[in-house]
Amino acid sequence: MADRMIVGIPESHATDPLSDALGQMARDGAALLHAFLSARGLTLVIAPAARGAPEEMVLGPGPFSRPTRAGHQLFWGIEHTLPPIVWHHASRRRPVRGRGLHLMPLGPVRGDVSESLAYQLVVLGDEIHQVRLRAGYKRRHVAEAMTGADVSAALQVAERVTGTSRVAHALAFSLAVEQALGIGVSAADQEARVVLAELERITSHVGDLALLAASTGTVAAAADWFRLKETLLRFQAALTGHRYLMGVVGPGGHRRPLSRELSALPALLAAVRAQVDAVASALDVTNSYLDRLHGAGRLPESPDGGVYWTGFVGKSAGLMRDTRWDAPYAAYGALTAGLAPVSVNRPDAYGRAWVRLGEVRQSLQMLSRVMDFRSPVETAAPPERQGGDRGVGYGMVEAPRGRLCYRLAVHAGRVRAASLTTPSQLNWPAVPLALEQRNILQDFPIIDASFSLAVSALDL
Amino acid sequence: MFYRRWLMHYLKRPVVTSFPGQVDPAAPARAPLEPAAHPLFRQSLTLRQVDGGSCNGCEAEIQLLASPVYDLSRFGFALSPSPRHADLLLVTGVITEAMVPVIRTAYDAMPEPRLVVAVGACATEDGGGFHGMPGVVGRLDGVVPVAVRIPGCPPSPNDLLAGLLAAVGRPARTAEAR
Asked: Residues of A numbered 196-235 whose beta carbons fall under 8 angstroms of chain B's beta carbons: which are they?
C-alpha cells in the first residue's frame, strides 16, 4: 500500500525536489503523465513540450515519500483512508478555524445516484471556506489485480476501472502491451480504435452535460441530453454487442470485430450533430442555466502552472494539452492534421462545459473524417501474436476525462507489474480548490457536476 | 426557448420507450427474473442507490432510469436522496470492507418493510475480477439480506426495470405475452 503513496501540491516546501521538478516542467511546457513510487524513489514520467517519447525523471527519497501509517496515503492533498475511517487525521492542509464556522460532512452516501466519496465542507453560513475530500471507501486494488494475471484477464480488470471509459482503458492497456512486446496493429484496426474512442468520448461528454443541466434544474435540456446518450449507447450496443464498448479493443487489434452497423454511423453522426446544435443553442439563451455556470467553481491560478490538470479541466484553464496531439496513437496522427485541441482560458463551470461541447463537435468531425478515408466496414481478423515475449511498455491515451497512462511489464503472457495514472486522479485535487473560491453551498452540486470525475478512478 | 420544443414533443409521438410492452433489441436477452412470491410492495416505491465499490458503470445506467427514455416514475418508482425515505436499496460494486458499515448503516436507517437489490456482476457474482484483493468482500450476500439480484456488466436500464418490477411482484411483460 505504501508503495502507491504519492504527494503533490506541496504547500510550503521551497526546497522540495518535487516542487522544483514540477515547477521546471511547467516552465518548459512539459506535462506530467504519470508518477509512481518504487525502491528508487518517486519516478515522474514527463511528456516533453515537443512531440516525442515520454521521459522518466527519478527523484530520490524525500519529503514526498514520507512513510505513513499502513492504510493511509497522501495523494495530491487528498487523504486516503482504509477502515476505520478516521475523521480527524492530521492532514498537510491547515484546518480553518473561527467563530461561526462549522463542518458539514457529506457522504459517502450522497446525492441522488453517486459514487462513494466523503466531502467535509467547512462553511460559514452558506459560504464554503474549505473542502476536504475523504477517498478510499472503494479501493479495489486495480494494479494489484492486474499484477500476476495473464494479459487477457488483466485487460478485463482494466476495462472495469471506470465503467464509462472502457475503450480508453482497454486502449491504453493494449498500447502498453504492444509497446512491451513489439506487436504491430493493422491500419484498419487503428481506424476502428479511433471510431470507438471518439464514440466513447461523445457519449461520456453528453452524459456529463446531462448531469450538469440537471444540477442547474434545466430538466428539459437534461432530458434531451440523456435521450441523446441513450441513442448513442444503443448504437454502440448494435456496433459491438456492449452498450459501453467492453470486450472489443485488445492488444494487436480487436477481440471482436465491429458489426456492419458501422455503415449506419454517418447517418447517426448527422442526427447527433443536429440534436447537439439544437440543445446547445437553446441552452445558450437560457439564463437560468448560464447564470448558474458563469463564474462558478473558478480554478485559481496555481503556482506550478497547472502542471497536473488534464482533459477538459486543463483545457478550460487555457492549457493546450491533449494526448491525441502531443503523442499521437492509433490513427490520430493523420486525423488531427489541421485541427487544434479545444481550449479556452476560462476555468469556471461554464468553461468546462464549453470545452466539452466543443470536443463533442470536434469528435463528430473526426469521426466523419475517419469514415471518409476508411475503406472496409469490418475490422480485421483476430490479433496475431508476434514479437517478443517480455518487455516494458507505456500506453497513453486521451480518455474522455483527460490523459490516461498505463505502464506495464509483460513476461511470458503475464503482467508482471502494472501501474496506471487516471485523469480523475490528476483532476480530483482541483475540485476542493475550485469549491473554495467564495462559492456557496447552492453551487456545490453544479461545481461537482462540472468536473464529473470518477471516484472509481481515484480509489484505484 | 424550450417551450417550443416541449410543444413539439407533445404534438409528435412521445420519445419514451413503451417498455415493458416492447422488448428492447439493444438489451441483451437474459433469463426472466422470477417475481417475488409475497411481494412487500405493490405500488409506489422509493429507491436509494449505494455504491459499494463500483466502476461507475451501474451508476451511469441507474441515472438513465430517470431519463425520459425509461422514465421509472411511470411505474411509481422514484429515487430518494436519503435512505431514511427509501423502501428499496440498490447496491452496486464489488463491496469493499470500508463500505460494509456504510451499507449496513444505510440499511438500518431504512423504515420497515425494506428490500435490497444487488446490481451488477460485481455485487452478484464473483466480484468482477477483484475477488481476493485486500479489502474486497466480493459479494453483497452476508452483508445485508438480498431480495433480488440483477446481473450484467452493467445491467441495462431495461434489466434494472425488469429486476425492480420483479422485486415488487409485477413481472415485466414480454413481447410474446402482449
From this structure: 207, 210-211, 220-224, 226-227, 229-230, 233-234
Q: What is the pLDDT of residue A280?
A: 93
Q: For residues A268 and A141, give the distance between their C-alpha atoms in angstroms, rounded to a whole number.
A: 38
- Residue A59's pLDDT is 61
Structural domains of chain B in order of their starting residue, each with its CATH number: 43-167 (3.40.50.12280)
Residue A14: the pLDDT is 37
How far A127 CA lies from chain B's nearest CA (Å)? 22
CA distance A47 to A258: 33
CA of A83 vs chain B CAs: smallest distance (Å): 5
Question: Do residue B102 and residue A116 have CB atoms under 8 angstroms apart?
Answer: yes
Phi, psi of B47 (to 5 degrees): -110, 145
- A160 CB neighbours in chain B (<8 A) are 55, 57, 122, 128-130, 153
Statement: residue B37 has pLDDT above 80: no
Are B52 and A116 an interchain contact pair (Cβ–Cβ within 8 Å)? Answer: yes
Please tell me the distance in Å from B87's CA to the nearest CA on chain A: 15
* Predicted pLDDT at A120: 87
Q: Which of A83, A153, A278 sits opposite B98 (nearest CB)?
A: A83
Whether the per-residue pLDDT at B124 is higher than 70: the answer is yes
Examine the pLDDT at B100 and tell me if it is beyond 90. yes
pLDDT at A351: 94
CB pairs below 8 Å between A and B: how many? 160
C-alpha to C-alpha distance for A97 and A130, rounded to whole angstroms: 10
User: Chain-wide mean pLDDT for chain A?
Assistant: 79
Residue in A232, A114, A375, A11 with CA at minimum distance from that of residue B90: A114
Q: How far apart are CA A272 and CA A269, in angstroms?
A: 5
Give CA separation, A55 vs A41, A47, A59, A415, in Å. Answer: 16, 7, 13, 22
Task: Answer yes or no: are the C-beta atoms of A199 and A273 closer than 8 Å.
Answer: no
pTM comes to: 0.84
Topology annotation, domain A142-451: Cytochrome-c3 Hydrogenase; chain B (1.10.645)
Inter-chain residue contact B56 with A162, CB threshold 8 Å = yes
pLDDT of residue A358: 95
Q: Quick check: B81 and A112 CB within 8 A?
A: yes
The stretch B108-114 carries a mean pLDDT of 90
What local confidence, expressed as pLDDT, does residue A400 receive? Answer: 93
Q: What is the pLDDT of residue A84?
A: 28
| pLDDT score, position A270 | 94
> What is the rounded CA–CA span in Å between residue B20 and residue B165?
10
Q: Which residues of chain A have pLDDT under 50?
A: 1-15, 61-92, 376-377, 379-380, 382
Residues in CB range of B147: below 8 A, 6 or more apart:
B36, B115, B116, B117, B167
For residue B36, the distance in angstroms to the closest alpha carbon of chain A comes to 25
The three-class DSSP label of residue A352 is helix
Residue A157 with chain B: CB contacts under 8 Å: 129-130
Q: Which of B55, B102, B130 to mutate to test the interface with A (most CBs of A within 10 A)?
A: B55
| B-chain residues near A223 (CB < 8 A) | 67-68
pLDDT, residue B19, reads 45
Kindly provide the b/e burial profile for residues A238-266, where b requires at least 16 CB atoms within 10 angstroms of the residue's own CB. bbbbbbbbbbbbbbbbbbebbbeebeebe
Q: How far is CA A424 from CA A95, A142, A292, A458, B98, in A?
A: 25, 15, 24, 6, 21
